[in-house]
């Protein structure tokens, strides 16, 4: 695709981390700046015109952990799947801590990935927002587009941070003096910022994608994330309206996207997907989950509860769960991404897709007592999976909500923490997180719902307060 070439070729020409020299004074502060580029250029030079500005934008999206899209290492999906009832592992103590609820503030994945990468990326986003604001060298339309894109990306980072850690420091500037030491903002404040960013992005983005493919956000990318945010906040009518807007936009489809094509580049179900360009594999999900060679034991195995969640004939089990035989034992692993060959870039990293919008609309509709609509949306997803219509009682909101949760479990497993976040937020359903996980695993307590803040950050910033239980 043309856009992939723009991202990766331009980004080699100019590496953008810019700005205040003082920002490089400490590599362990809240905003941990990635390694110095070979040569630094001024902010004025970076945003001198649309071409150089697009280099900075490319740096935000580049599929490169710690210097570009923060979640391209796959650890958000991996760790939350271990925390939920989706995956198990025996490979390392740091990974096992997520499964056994024995996380410590020194966990290497928390301190080295889940916390610092988003904040590094938020710094880049804030730098672009600052660079394009009131910039007379850029057209008003270009400023508007880039601002909307960056606001969306920042909202996505904070959405994931707040669901993993709870209240976190809110950083909307590149000023080192302003971000050196910050307290945790409340979850209410973080969600308010997320909604403000997405609401403004809605006003700035157009329905037309700004480049070939769906590799940069458009209007409906922002609306889709806003639907998810409102669902989590219990704003049922807003979530319904926003998901409905995406579904009825005419840009996306699930009906003509078979299961084995959902995660391919150019999928018609994709609302937003980033080019996968890992050095050693196409994307990190595949690298984490697929056996590295024939006969190898996968590092992460699908749990029995997840396997049992699939009904007889569910084609998602055949298409999205892989199996291998090791020592005459059949082992199952996630298989949504199937390509380990970096020379074959057929799969992009799917971040938002239409299937989730149907399930958001279904859940919101059920809460609004529009049970017929909710059941219809559930059945659209089931039909694509090769299943008959749901037998859930259309007169019972509890039955329909449980049917939605079941469908979310089998449709969205090992994607962006959906199952872990669902278990934590649906404590009013018949089966809460503690009930579900207590049947499969031991050690879960209410404190385990949030991950610990890195101990290094607590030591460096005396305004930060650790999550309970750590």
Order of helices and strands, N to C? HHHHEHHHHHHHHEHEHHEEEHHHHHH
Largest beta-sheet characterization: 2 strands, antiparallel
The overall average pLDDT, rounded, is: 88
Global morphology: globular
Query: Spatial order of the strands in the main sheet?
Result: 1-3
Count the E strands.
Answer: 6
Task: From the alpha carbons, calculate the radius of gyration and give it in angstroms.
Answer: 22 Å
Structural class: mainly alpha
Strand content: 5-15%
- How many H/I helical runs? 21
End-to-end distance, in Å? 46 Å
- Spans of at least 5 consecutive residues whose pLDDT stays below 50 are 1-39
The percent of residues in helical segments reads 40-55%
